[in-house]
Amino acid sequence: MMSFVPADSPYVFAQLDPMPQNVRDALLYYSDQKLAAALEIVKQIPPDFDRSQLPVVSRVGLAFLDEVKHADMRHWGRDLGLDPSGRFAFYGLSVWPVMRVAVADPVKLRGVVGRLIAAADLGPRVVEETRDGKRFWTFTAKGVTVVAAVLDTEAVAAVVPTAALGESLPILLGLRQPDHPLAETHRVADLLASHHFSKLMFGYVDLRQVTSILTGRGMGPLEAMLHDATGPISDVCKADIERLVEIAPRFVFGYHSFDTHGFHASIVAELAPSILRALQTLRTEVPDVVAGIDSAAMMKIGAAFKLDAMLPLAGSAVAWGKARPFQCEWLEPLDKTFGQLEQVIANPLPPAMQGFRGFSAVLEDFRKEPFDITGSLLLATDRSPDLLAIIQQKVPGMSGLTIVPDGRPVALPAMALGLDPKTQLHAAARADRVAVAVGRTSPDRVIELVHAKTPQHSPLLSFTFDVPRMQATGLFDEDDEDDLGSDNMTSVGLQLDVKDDGLALDVFGTFPKM
User: Fold this and answer.
1) Of 138, 240, 420, 501, which has the fewest Cβ atoms less than 10 A away?
2) DSSP symbol at 431
3) Residue 98: domain span
4) Would you say residue 180 has pLDDT above 90?
5) Which stretch of DSSP H or E encloses residue 466?
6) Is residue 463 in a domain?
7) C-beta atoms surrounding 206 within 10 Å
8) In whole angstroms, what is the distance from residue 132 CA to residue 491 CA?
């Protein structure tokens, strides 16, 4: 499949290895449930219902449901003729999208595609043709052509400029490979190894290739329509865009692990070495801020970064921008941003915030009626006495209290802080941290936090939550749940971190027991 992907494709997303059935069930459980629910609704439609007045998308959707209504919900793709391995490749022929999917029964799948096209009722605009023994369909509108074909081992769909159809068809139909196939390079293997990804699913976006195409460095039928739309790009803008892209020339996506219990995936921005080294100066460790998911917490938000290091980092960014201002009119807002940032960093940090290293906020339990809450907040700082002084000055009801950094819990006035007077609230501090906890176990919790060991590593930012428990509180509405695919998740974690291979957004998730 990768033999037909050009090596200079600006984006590639692919499943390289067959997906085990149990992993497929975990991944698509939520989608399968939605599909089954849609089929139940379709059963209520009278047989004599006139579909011809429906929009095209609705007609095709109903025709698709007709195809799968007798299928096994765990194997509906196979029953349509798709390969159970689930292998696919989505990539760009120049910037134009191409999708290739593995096929097990091409005859069955061709019949399905033919019936879906008939349901769309697009008349003579959908043309069935043959080239060198390969049957395919085309649909042309506004200068672009949609191509679809079911080949012997793959189904392919693509959108290309009509003017480039002649040169694109042989590659799309598998009649010949591109001049430089991705499969003949070491790029995929090298990226998988350098980022420690598995071959289950993988992808990248190469901004250098995108820039090359957009700025007109590659001219041909595939690019002509794009350049007509954008108009000429000046040499000044080309240089400025290329300079900006060099900050993060490529984004890479992949799974480190995926099984029936859960997954760990990453989106990595590969940064210029100087930018990566500068961001690494922010690294620090904060108690209770660790990689992975905290299974005991309902919700947890944490951060670990040297606030003192952010000012020099921002100053370097300002100096970089001012040394060579952007001349392209499209990038003028960036020059203004550098000016605004310079004004912000001109003011030194307040003494209480110097030495601030991060925080951990944990919601362990919550109930609306009757109101009850259990949680904690940890502030990591090298100057806890200064931070305590600010808190006691600014927080209502705290002025008469004395909290010293000796690790002992001090009861706080819940009513003064807007909580039910029966709510237990305690604080404790040490020289390097301040802890506050609410709930029945708050005295023990603050002691635990002020004596917690510092981990070997903390991510820059972390956000994790238990999906079913958050749903039970009513803190999610139905739209939120649909966006999260939460029926299929027991916990979710998002973590931003500076690693040796770039700036990474790690995504963790766990599945319910099947």
Assistant:
1) 420
2) T
3) 2-188
4) yes
5) strand 461-466
6) yes
7) 21
8) 51
61 Cβ contact partners less than 8 Å away, ≥ 6 residues apart: none
**Tokens linked to 202:** 């993988």
Same domain, 58 and 141: yes
Q: Which residue has the higher pLDDT, 427 or 352?
A: 427
**Which residue's structure tokens are 């307040």?**
350
Q: What 3-state class would DSSP assign to 475? A: coil
pLDDT of 74 reads 84
Confidence grade of residue 259 (pLDDT, cut at 50, 70, 90): confident
Same domain (yes/no): 44, 82: yes
Distance, CA of 445 to CA of 375 (rounded, Å):
9
Q: What are phi and psi of 423, to 5 degrees?
A: -70, 130
How are the residues of the chain apportioned to helix, strand and coil, as percentages rounded to the nearest 5?
Answer: 40, 25, 35
Count CB atoms within 10 A of the CB of residue 402.
8
Task: Return the SS3 of 119.
Answer: helix
Examine the domain organization and report whether 314 and 299 are in the same domain: no
Q: What percent of the chain has pLDDT over 90?
A: 52
Distance CA 460, CA 493 (A): 13
Mean pLDDT of the 250-276 span: 94
Task: Tell me: do 14 and 87 sit in the same domain.
Answer: yes
Q: Which residues of 74-106 are buried (b: 16+ CB within 10 A; e: fewer)?
A: eebbbbbbbbeebbbbbbbbbbbebbbbbbebb
Residue 114 lies inside a defined structural domain of this protein: yes
Half-sphere exposure of 83 (CA within 13 A, CB side): 19
* 142: pLDDT strictly greater than 70: yes
Q: What is the pLDDT of residue 477?
A: 58
In angstroms, the Cα distances linking 134 to 1, 106, 169, 171, 495 are 17, 12, 10, 12, 47
Residue 499, phi then psi, degrees to nearest 5: -115, 180
Residue 296 has pLDDT above 90, yes or no: no
The pLDDT > 70 percentage for the chain reads 95
Q: Is 264 among the domain residues?
A: no
Are 290 and 324 in a shared domain? no
The band of 383, judged by pLDDT with boundaries at 50, 70 and 90, is confident
**Can you tell me the distance from the alpha carbon of 320 to that of 444, in angstroms, rounded to the nearest whole number?**
49
| Least confident interval from 19-28, 57-66, 350-359 | 19-28
Q: Do both 289 and 155 map to the same domain?
A: no
The alpha-helical segments, DSSP class H, found in 284-331 are: 307-323
Would you state the structure tokens that stand for residue 452, as one six-digit string? 């917690």
pLDDT at 487: 55
Q: Where are the beta strands (DSSP E) in 185-334?
A: 202-206, 250-258, 262-270, 299-304
More confident residue, 157 or 51: 157
**pTM tops 0.85:** yes
Structural domains of the chain, count: 3
- 2 exposure class (CB count in 10 Å sphere: 0-12, 13-18, 19+): middle
Same domain membership, residue 398 and residue 327: no
Output the pLDDT for position 437.
93
Establish if 199 belongs to a structural domain: no
Residues 6+ apart with CB under 8 A from 299: 362, 363, 464, 465, 466, 470
